DNA sequence: GCCGTTTTCGGCCCGACTGTTTTCAGTCG
């Protein structure tokens, strides 16, 4: 049985929910939630780690007890203690906590005093007006239950590209408000997480500025969830929640740090503060009620003896320890990018010509562009056979003679067939500058077969870059089952590269796998998979993801001049 | 349940807003 990390995390979260309703020590509850987050964002499969005999207690927040529980879940697919707990607390109660306004205490009261354990029973009680009778409840909560019961939020996170569009429009709106100075979207958006749950916007303004009214009256607001002097929350038409915080200018840095998160990072920083006798909150850094810092974000880090930590690193994944050792990575930036290795034209499923793509790349300041139209296996996209590829090579030669300031590279996106062979013969591949190779069919092979298939493809001497290594589409298609650790090892042994696909629907490698590739010494190509000229702008999403994976300029091959990339592409 | 240069017990981040209250608990981020 293969237990996925998401399953382990789910069991821990359910256990934490029920413990909370049971009134357990809140820190114990937190330990389970922390563990769930750690496991969910792990680069490797927990099942594999157990099988390979790795010490799980080395993971942050995992001690002896939780390590044993993970092993039990991996072995049996379930957790006996969860079943025991469910014997006296109905598991369905956890779902009630998804209702706004209902937390563990109120859910417990509903269960103990009205015998409610399901959403259906909750609905019936609300309809009969029983809920508002309970001490600690009232009409508002009963009303909210009736309104929300049909639509318990799915809680789907939105893609970064959508958040960017919504956030930019809202920032423009707020910047027009009189007296407003700084407006910044913080939260997981600023950390460039691949999806975000909500938007956190931070504003500084003059004392007499009225920001909350224009915010809650923004044209796309469908619901005001709360409104106060310094904080308000709204829901937009798109379903996303936006929180606005207004802070004084002197608190801007502390607030920016606080609202950028992650929560785990903030807790770790504040704990460091406590050890130094400091209190850190969104208003500043305090020693004995005296405010000693907080105007700039750097000051927060300084106060606990650390250098500035880039937002993308703030996940408590080791960045604080790295900062303490003076070993923070110098993260790659957009300006380091010199080209794009994965793009398409209208010759297959793209929308622009070769020349238009080249011009667009040059306009971005790139030095080279690899146009990688599909190969014959992908019939849907009119993939190239050897004859058309030979024509394409000549066409590129002609264009390169004409083009100035940009080099078009001869390339193709090859299909990795079920048996691990590539779908065009070596005789034509040897004429190319590089290849990107990808899986488009047979997504549901067994883990071992999928892994071996891809490694076999890497054995081909003309294999250069493994494109979108897991095939996942965010919120749409799960990754195919593959042992990424083995793939990364295989890539290093063969001197090939992994793509970090920058398309915002893919962002494949994940942040954790990107970090793993770096730790194992495998270099990455950040590529957009552009199907039209404007898609070349996706590069910044890829760079964001690369930064989350701790990549520096030298870890990324398309930060190099083409002459230097060529040397790297030579197989060992 | 985790964790450790105030260590193996006793801590564990911090504040805003809401609803239900007469001073605060619960929820949320």
CATH homologous superfamily designation of the largest domain: Metal-dependent hydrolases
- What percentage of the residues does DSSP assign to strands (E)? 5-15%
Shape: globular
The largest pleated sheet is described as:
5 strands, mixed
Amino- and carboxy-terminal Cα gap: 37 Å
The third-level CATH topology of the largest domain is TIM Barrel
Radius of gyration: 26 Å
Quantity of strands, as a count: 18
Overall CATH class of the largest domain? Alpha Beta
Q: What is the subunit organization of this protein?
A: single chain
Number of domains: 4
Question: What is the name of the CATH architecture of the largest domain?
Answer: Alpha-Beta Barrel
The chain-level structural class is alpha/beta
Tell me about this structure.
The radius of gyration is 26 Å and the shape is globular. The protein has 4 domains: 147 residues, DNA polymerase beta, N-terminal domain-like (DNA polymerase, domain 1), CATH 1.10.150.110; 90 residues, Beta Polymerase, domain 2 (2-Layer Sandwich), CATH 3.30.460; 62 residues, 2-Layer Sandwich (Beta Polymerase, domain 3), CATH 3.30.210.10; 236 residues, Metal-dependent hydrolases (TIM Barrel), CATH 3.20.20.140. A 5-stranded mixed sheet has the order 2-4-7-6-5, sandwiched between helices. Strands 14-15-16-17-18 form a 5-stranded parallel sheet, with helices on one face. The protein has a 3-stranded antiparallel sheet with strand order 8-9-10. It starts with a helix and ends with a helix. It is of the alpha/beta class and 572 residues long. The chain contains 24 helices and 18 strands. The chain binds one DNA strand of 29 nucleotides through helix 2, helix 4, helix 7, helix 9 and strand 6.
């Amino acid at each position: 049985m293969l237990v996925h990390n998401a399953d382990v995390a789910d069991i821990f979260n359910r256990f934490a929910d029920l413990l909370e309703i049971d009134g357990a020590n809140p820190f114990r509850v937190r330990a389970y939630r922390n563990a769930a987050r750690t496991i969910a964002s792990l680069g490797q499969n927990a099942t594999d780690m157990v099988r390979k005999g790795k010490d799980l207690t080395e993971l942050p927040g995992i001690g002896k007890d939780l390590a044993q529980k993970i092993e039990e879940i991996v072995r049996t697919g379930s957790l006996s203690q969860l079943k025991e707990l469910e014997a006296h607390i109905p598991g369905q109660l956890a779902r009630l906590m998804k209702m706004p306004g209902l937390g563990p205490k109120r859910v417990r009261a509903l269960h103990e005093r009205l015998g409610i354990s399901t959403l259906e029973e909750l609905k019936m009680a609300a309809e009969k007006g029983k809920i508002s009778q309970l001490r600690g409840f009232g009409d508002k909560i009963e009303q909210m239950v009736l309104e929300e019961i049909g639509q318990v939020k799915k809680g789907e996170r939105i893609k970064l590209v959508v958040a960017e569009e919504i956030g930019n429009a809202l920032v423009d709106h707020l910047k027009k408000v009189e007296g407003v100075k700084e407006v910044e979207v913080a939260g997981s958006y600023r950390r460039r997480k691949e999806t975000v749950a909500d938007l956190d916007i931070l504003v500084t303004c003059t004392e007499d500025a009225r920001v909350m009214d224009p915010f809650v009256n923004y044209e796309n607001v469908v619901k005001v969830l709360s409104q106060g002097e310094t904080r308000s929350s709204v829901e937009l038409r798109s379903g996303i929640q936006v929180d606005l915080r207004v802070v004084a200018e002197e608190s801007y840095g502390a607030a920016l740090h606080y609202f950028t998160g992650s929560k785990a990072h903030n807790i770790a920083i504040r704990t460091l503060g406590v050890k130094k006798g400091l209190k850190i909150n969104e208003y500043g850094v305090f020693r004995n009620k005296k405010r000693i810092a907080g105007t700039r974000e750097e000051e927060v880090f300084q106060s606990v003896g650390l250098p500035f930590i880039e937002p993308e690193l703030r996940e408590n994944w080791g960045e604080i320890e790295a900062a303490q050792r003076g070993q923070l990575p110098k993260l790659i930036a957009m300006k380091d990018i010199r080209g794009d290795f994965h793009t398409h034209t209208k010759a297959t499923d793209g929308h622009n010509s070769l020349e238009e793509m080249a011009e667009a790349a040059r306009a971005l300041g790139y030095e080279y562009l690899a146009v990688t139209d599909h190969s014959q296996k992908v019939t849907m996209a009119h993939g190239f056979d050897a004859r058309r590829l030979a024509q394409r090579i000549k066409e590129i030669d002609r264009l390169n003679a004409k083009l100035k300031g940009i080099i078009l590279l001869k390339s193709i996106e090859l299909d990795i067939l079920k048996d691990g062979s590539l779908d065009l013969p070596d005789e034509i591949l040897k004429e190319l500058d590089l290849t990107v190779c990808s899986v488009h069919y047979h997504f549901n092979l067994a883990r071992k077969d999928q892994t071996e298939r891809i490694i076999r493809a890497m054995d081909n001497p003309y294999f250069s870059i493994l494109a979108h290594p897991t095939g996942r589409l965010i919120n749409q298609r799960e990754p195919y089952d593959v042992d990424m650790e083995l793939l990364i090892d295989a890539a290093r042994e063969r001197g090939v590269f992994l793509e970090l696909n920058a398309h915002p629907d893919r962002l494949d490698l994940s942040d954790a796998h990107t970090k793993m590739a770096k730790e194992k010494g495998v270099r990455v190509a950040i590529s957009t998979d552009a199907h039209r000229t404007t898609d070349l702008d996706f590069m910044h999403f890829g760079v964001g993801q690369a930064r989350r994976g701790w990549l520096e300029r030298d870890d990324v091959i398309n930060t190099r001049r083409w002459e230097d990339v060529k040397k790297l592409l030579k197989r060992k």
